[in-house]
Amino acid sequence: YRGTKRxxxxxxxxxxxxxxVEGGPPLxxxxxxxxxxxxxxxxxxxxxxxxxxxxxxxxxNGTEDVYERVSRATPSAEQLxxxxxxxxxxxxxxxLRVVLEDGILKIARRPDRVVPLRAxxxxxxxxxxxxxxxxxxxxxxxxxxxxxxxxxxxxxxxRVAEPPGGGVGEDRxx
Length: 174
Prior knowledge:
Elements: E1 2-3, E2 12-15, E3 18-21, E4 28-31, E5 34-37, E6 40-46, E7 52-58, E8 64-68, H1 77-81, E9 85-89, E10 94-101, E11 104-109, E12 113-116, E13 118-119, E14 124-127, E15 130-136, E16 142-148, E17 155-159
Antiparallel strand pairs: 1-8, 2-3, 4-5, 5-6, 6-7, 7-8, 9-10, 9-17, 10-11, 11-12, 13-14, 14-15, 15-16, 16-17
């Protein structure tokens, strides 16, 4: 499930005869479509006869995070190559390079910091930096990357280097 506010991801898994959020405690049923999760409440919203399409997590302080069902991504090397390029964030005066090495997509930063990316859902990755989401324009080409961390919710880096197949920082439909 993908968070609608931050783009973060949670996985709900079956562990023996229990259901839990991956890496967390079991979900304990409390009512129809409601579970406790540690000190939080989880509400699920399935369509009639369908799998759960939306999950709402209500923290003990009352804040709500909504998660929508997405498919886990397993991009091919060809798909990963679409993200390769140099990106610039003028607001924070920073550049980053996205490289593909040995089938692994990575962010290379100066002076020698390299951060591997782990695919989560379409065009989105998890990393030590935070959530990395590549954004496509109207014609489907990657135009920028958005990075969300615990301290910054949407730092945008615009593509500035020529990607394979053309188009620089915009979505050309030639």
